[in-house]
Predict the structure of Restriction endonuclease type IV Mrr domain-containing protein.
Amino acid sequence: MTESMSVRCPVCRRDHLYAAPVYPCACGAPLAPPLLRAARPEPITHRTWTDDWVTVRCPECERQDQWPQPELGCPCGTVLRIPVRPVSAPALPVPGESRGPVRTPSHLPLPSTVVTSRPTFRPVTIRTARDAVTAAALYLKWLGFRDVLQPGVRPVSGIDLRGPGVVAQVDPTTRPSTLRAVECLWLNGLSTSAVSVFFSLAGYADDARARADQLGVPLFVMDLTGCPQPVNAAADDLIAAGA
């Protein structure tokens, strides 16, 4: 069982219910980073690999290890870093608060719950840019796209993944993906009659998000757990319908 908390996006003021992701400790016990409720989530405007990891202590075996920093992708395109309680701080109860079962954020249709006929999506932890492309390829295959190929060298077109009926771009940089990148991806999909899907680690510029909505390009953000989250209606529709 993990804790959940209400998170308000400081950009669009939308409220979300966030539950920290649960992973198995080396001892086998389920473990989630303890959320720091007193701290305010902040938009991610710059990424460094070292800042995207937090130390978490397992209450069962007392092992301390590095875990991906919890993040939440808001539909407005903002990616929020969720503060985590330091391992040295005691886990104090919140007065008047009852801990219930894990609840899925209503705006994020997670892969394991959207379509019951699919198996649970198993992400891969992202530590490098190559890992980000691998995670996106696995997600496209989970959606039902077959023979998704990852070229050995990134082509000039910027397309990282191709398969029958789909092209995808993965932006692992620390800056929001641009309008030009979204339009180039859409044109590549249009020329091959394929669905164009964009994955980004740092979210999207406002004009890129607006253009994607106009063109119907599904946009996803990924945190370091490797689990893509939809940020526009086209992405929600793709999850619901599949390939």
Q: What stands out?
A: The helical segments are 111-114, 129-143, 179-191, 206-215, 233-241. The first strand starts at residue 4 and ends at 8. Confidence is low (pLDDT under 50) at residues 89-116. Residues 129-143 form the longest helix (15 residues).
